[in-house]
Amino acid sequence: MWLGAKTRRGGRGGGQPSGLDRERITSVSVRLLDAEGLEKFSMRRLAAELNVTAMSVYWYVDTKDDLLELALDAAFGELRLPDPDAEDEDWREQLRALATEYRALLVRHPWLSPLAGRYLNIGPNSLDFSRVVQRVVRRTGLPPHGVMGAISAVFQFVYGYGTVEGHFSARISDTGLSADEYHQQAMAVVAESPETAEAVEESKDLLAARGGDTVAEMLDRDFTFALDLLVAGIEAMVARG
């Protein structure tokens, strides 16, 4: 999508449709993906939402993959990025902020995670995010050969955490329950089953020590602690020289 000059296409649909532009098409694509998921997304469904023919959409993009790349990059444009050159800001807090933003993005758009590895992901917003991450991690004091490994450690963790959390949130939404109601019902069923009750009993002290009165608080605490472990690991590697 992003390589070479890709402006409008006129080969399939004749003249340019009125009332459409690539920004509007992308915005509606993101909204449909949020509402209905990746599996149900189609050019025909998008055209119906835009109240145009599918051929009108093809005037602006060549394929469904083009649209998904546009939607993916538009989502990355929602990220609030710190200034990596701000001398009065600590790299640790900037890295935590980037990780927290990325996690929230994955939860907000569950369709994003399967697309992130499908495409090169070199749209302008994605590249802005990647550049800021790289520049922040360069400030840690790690040697150049360790920078990409540190980025992988932090953001592959965030990707996994946010992906699972996003799927979990979507599952809860389908049930019509709140996250806390779903958790309570699920744990009650698991605790009553002979096959799983023993595992639950063994974990009781860990769950109690975990803290948090709600599912959201528990997820936040786990995420924060895991991220602190990764930051501490970076600090330890810097200290080792």
What is the compact description of this entry?
The protein has 11 helices and no strands.
Helicity, as a percent range: 55-70%
CATH homologous superfamily placement of the largest domain: Tetracycline Repressor, domain 2
Counting DSSP E segments of at least 2 residues, the number of strands comes to 0
| Major β-sheet annotation | none
State the domain count: 2
Percent of residues in beta strands? under 5%
Radius of gyration over alpha carbons? 22 Å
CATH architecture of the largest domain: Orthogonal Bundle
At CATH level 3, the topology of the largest domain is Tetracycline Repressor, domain 2
Domain HTH tetR-type: 19-79
Region (Disordered): 1-21
DNA-binding region: 42-61
Keywords: DNA-binding, Transcription, Transcription regulation
Helix and strand layout, with pairings?
Elements: H1 22-36, H2 43-50, H3 54-57, H4 64-76, H5 91-108, H6 112-116, H7 124-138, H8 144-175, H9 179-192, H10 194-210, H11 215-240
Helix pairs in contact: 1-4, 4-7, 5-8, 7-8, 8-11, 9-10
Provide structural commentary.
With 241 residues, the protein is mainly alpha-helical. The chain folds into 2 domains: 22-76, Orthogonal Bundle (Arc Repressor Mutant, subunit A), CATH 1.10.10.60; 84-176 and 211-240, Orthogonal Bundle (Tetracycline Repressor, domain 2), CATH 1.10.357.10. It contains 11 helices and no strands. The radius of gyration is 22 Å and the shape is flat. The chain starts with 21 loop residues before the first helix and ends with a helix. The relative contact order is 0.09. Residues 10-14 have low confidence and may be disordered.
